[in-house]
Amino acid sequence: MSSSRIMTEGSEAKCIISFTLPLLAGNLLQQTYNFVDTMIVGKYLGDDSLAAVGATGSITYLFYTLCIGLSIGAGVLISQYFGAGRPDKVRAAVVNSAVITLIFAIAATIPSVLFARQILTFLGVKANLLGRAATYMQIACAGTICVAAYNWINSVMRALGDSKTPLIFLIVSTILNVILDLLFVISFKMGVGGAAFATVLAQGISAASCIIYCFKTNADIRPKEGELKIDPKLIQKCVTTGIPIAAQNGLISLSMVALQSVTNRFDENIMTAYTATMRIEQLVHQPYFSMSAAVTAFTGQNIGAGKQERAVKGYRASMKIGAVFAAVMFILFAFFGRNVIGIFVNGSRTKEIGALALIITGSCYIPLGAIHITRGFLNGAGDTGYSLVNGITEVVCRILFSLVLTRIPFISWRGIWITTAITWAITGAVSILRYKSGKWKLKAVK
């Protein structure tokens, strides 16, 4: 029985919220991969090992994100075809986007595994951390195809209005990841490599099982006889729609790599605090990521169905929800930031640094929400070209402000997190200006 759902009727806010909640649950579960790694590595292997793992985070995500961006682009096509009532085009887009995702996953894996040590050396990772960081990065990047496959099937199902099916498989995978983490790191004493291998294995199982189940049970994506073929024109559409998103994600990742490089110049207390706050901020991002994905699918289906005003109403409702969440999180970190940081680290100095960092970045959670929600709307409308502008803005801001602010004596290491807050504020403003320009009205995928 098909689990697809049309989102072109009913209350906009209710539709988006009901679609967002399973996505949020799934994203939070997926983040437990990172949290489990962080907690087990930090508590059982020590702060040095945690710093080594943290030093790989931005560069590893860079390789992941190119594949993820292409998957999102394919989802835009699929959602608009689905909303327009073109099942043949839906199935063709599924087949051809799978091919592109596989090719890019392999292309991203090879350099990241072969040149991990050289890349980390270039980024300034300290000699005493380099060996462990390289091991973690090589194993994690070897699993890029698992990450790409899971995000691809997620994107396909979201485009069809189904945010629940992938969640079921992710729950099982998350439990497995926890068990494997404990087994490899504590029982088998495999060090940081064990934590990376546990995550890759769990994600691979989740991706494979979800893909098999979805194709067996959902006729909307299962190719009919003669449809399992490559369509050059559709490949081109998948690439031209997805490349700007992939480029945006890649540029944002590069900006994070640059910020990580600046962070690596400071002592290990700063590096460890940065790793911990990055993990916490990943959690904060999840409702925004989820709502952005929901808005993309909602907008895509409604634009495909010719219901532009309904798409706009959904965007406005999402912006209000995002602002409320931002205010709640800032209050939480303002009063309990030290306790939250203490979940991941032991040192008193590290907790002090991390607590202040959460207040600094928390002050700009509203523009952070605006970035994600507006990006989701523009992508769903087919205005994926703006994603490149968005990525360039973040690169310029993170590199410029981090290099300047961290060299001002009375700001110093605080400039790492001030840079993040300023980047969100500027990028959020640029995103809203793009929406208000109305250029997205001319960008619907035909």
Automatic annotation (TrEMBL):
GO annotation, cellular component aspect: plasma membrane
GO terms of molecular function: antiporter activity; xenobiotic transmembrane transporter activity
Compartments (UniProt record): Cell membrane
Domain of life: Bacteria
Transmembrane segments: 61-82, 94-115, 135-153, 165-188, 194-215, 321-341, 353-373, 385-405, 411-433
UniProt keywords, alphabetically: Antiport, Cell membrane, Ion transport, Membrane, Transmembrane, Transmembrane helix, Transport
Function description: Multidrug efflux pump.
Designated name of the protein: Probable multidrug resistance protein NorM
Lineage, top ranks: Bacteria, Bacillati, Bacillota, Clostridia, Eubacteriales
